[in-house]
Amino acid sequence: MQKQPVFFRDLGIMGYTEAWEYQEWLLKQNVDIKTRYYSSQQKQQKNATTNYLLFVEHPPVYTLGKTGHEENVLLGEEELQDRGILFVKTNRGGDITFHGPEQIVGYPILDLEKFGTDIGKYLRNLEEVIIRTLAEYGIRGERSSGETGVWIEPGTKGKERKIAAFGVRCSRWITMHGFAFNINTDLRYFDGIIPCGIKNKQVTSLARELGRNIPLTEVKEKLKEQFEEVFEAELFAMEESTVKA
Question: How many whole angstroms separate alpha carbon 87 and alpha carbon 2?
Fold first, then answer.
């Protein structure tokens, strides 16, 4: 089976809103292509869409999904300002989560007509990328029934802890938003929210599980390799012409 090309870019440290706008720009380009070539005579032109994978590290921000509940933010506006934490309502699925330093956030902008038009399968594949990456560090990542994300010991009451959160949006089968994988993340930020709206369960990081810090560059390379394998894709460096000024 021929591998699907996916163009990769590491955005480095970038504000949440700026990265969101960039995703929207890439998504719109693909949606416009599908709209333009929707007639049956030009249906083959749908293959002109381009797949992307973005990695980014955000300054501290709480983001609330479109179906989320604002009461899951436990800090008031003044407290958020004092702690230097932004609060943003987004158009992704899911509830409240945190993005911040030493966390790898992945944003795939994929045309699912090339990977399978099944959002559930897409989310399971994203989870699988994290699960396989954790396995390389000797950690057993698992799914928790009815709860999107990657967990450690989800079946052991009192020990359930989430290491990666997910929330996506899809338009004309083009995806955006994605996952947040805690690496050396300061987990105290999660004390200001009810993560993903799930009470009485912990949040963890790769550093906490291993008892040491891990270079983000190392984890990113493992994530890229696993992404290629799970999605049967091949990553290429993004061309400068596709980088929004």
Answer: 42
